[in-house]
Write a structure and sequence with these properties.
By secondary structure, the chain is α+β, with helices and mostly antiparallel strands. Helices cover 41% and strands 20% of the residues. The chain has helices spanning 4-9, 22-32, 53-64, and strands at 12-18, 40-46. A two-stranded parallel ribbon has the order 1-2. Helix 2 (22-32) links the parallel strand 1 and strand 2 (40-46). Helix 2 runs parallel beside helix 3 (53-64). The N and C termini lie far apart (36 Å).
């Protein structure tokens, strides 16, 4: 039996995979973030980027969405 109360407490996560593609990842975030609510979240998984993606994405987040935790 489906429990409606439990369904309202569920959270959906969007997982973004990144490998040396900070521009694409930031573009994806720019498209997604305005549509998120308290029941959705984003996880970014980096696959050992060598282009500084982690730092660049983190700086973009702090500058554009300082209230979002990393």
């Amino acid at each position: 039996k489906f429990n409606l109360v439990y369904a309202n407490q569920m959270k959906i996560y969007i997982v973004i995979l990144n490998w040396n593609g900070h521009k694409d990842t930031i573009g994806c975030l720019e498209s997604l973030l305005p549509h998120l609510d308290n029941h959705t979240g984003v996880i970014i998984c980096d696959n050992a980027s060598t282009d500084g993606s982690i730092d660049l994405i983190s700086r973009w987040r702090v500058h554009n969405y300082p209230t979002i935790s990393a």
